[in-house]
Amino acid sequence: MTTTSGTSQNRVPLSCCIIVKNEADRIARCIEAVKGIADDIVVVDSGSTDATVEIAQQLGARTFFRAWDGYGPQKRHAEDLAAHDWILNIDADELVTPELANEIADLLGAGPPPLKAYRFRQVTVYPHQDRPRLWADAHNYVRLYDRRAVRFRDSLVHDTVDLAGQEAGQLQGSALHFSWRSLEHVTRKLDSYTDLQAKELRKNPVAVMLRLPFEYPVLFFRYYVLRRHFTGGLYGVKTAHTIATGRTKRLTKFLKHQAP
Fold first, then answer.
1. For the segment 184-212, what is each residue's pLDDT rounded down to a tens digit?
2. Domain ranges in the chain?
3. How far is residue 35's CA from residue 55's CA, in Å, rounded to a whole number?
4. What is the dihedral of CA 131, 191, 64, 162, to 10 degrees?
5. Topology of domain 14-177, CATH
6. pLDDT at position 4 over 60
7. What counts of helices (H) and strands (E) characterise the chain?
8. How far is Cα 56 from Cα 29, in angstroms, rounded to an integer?
């Protein structure tokens, strides 16, 4: 294993956890990007019908099967399987950049980090592109952490780390997020995601009905303007429309569940 701090006797070992399903076209790139910093790679598969598992095994990952029951439970299961307490938790559609890898290596190479959790940005990259568009939108989540202090929430839809009062540091490096393969893929992902959201949503049905007419325009504005998909040209317009339409469905699905 090669890291910028790989010779330090105080180096903290790292497990990388990845949950997958049918990621044969992306899993190799994801794993290759972390092999230089991870002492242990855990892949939890929820029923791939392609070569995802075989590719992960060929690259040295430890692979496990667990039937899908939501983002939080799946990621917590991966945490439990990790060989080491410090965890880098990424998705198969995320690519750790060399800058981020070096930053993580330096942080862990100097011994136990001063904080128990660290955020880094996941920057959106459009399909068939190699780099983010101008002013690309990004998430900034805790994805590097000590599982003895913090864990993923046990939520079906909120795949975020519960800091439990811990302070989180900010890494400067970022990961590239190839979140979807096509607009059709966005629609399928959101359809599955909003099924889970509708089950967890705790709202007054009357309030949801009053909110429904405004949901699409508000969401379109959020994604097109606030998340800057306007820099993506026509594809940015289509992206904002597709996401706004898909996310609005969680309200209609919730109301359907409430129907007698």
1. 999 999 998 888 777 777 777 888 889 99
2. 14-177, 183-258
3. 14
4. 80
5. Spore Coat Polysaccharide Biosynthesis Protein SpsA; Chain A (3.90.550)
6. no
7. 7, 10
8. 10
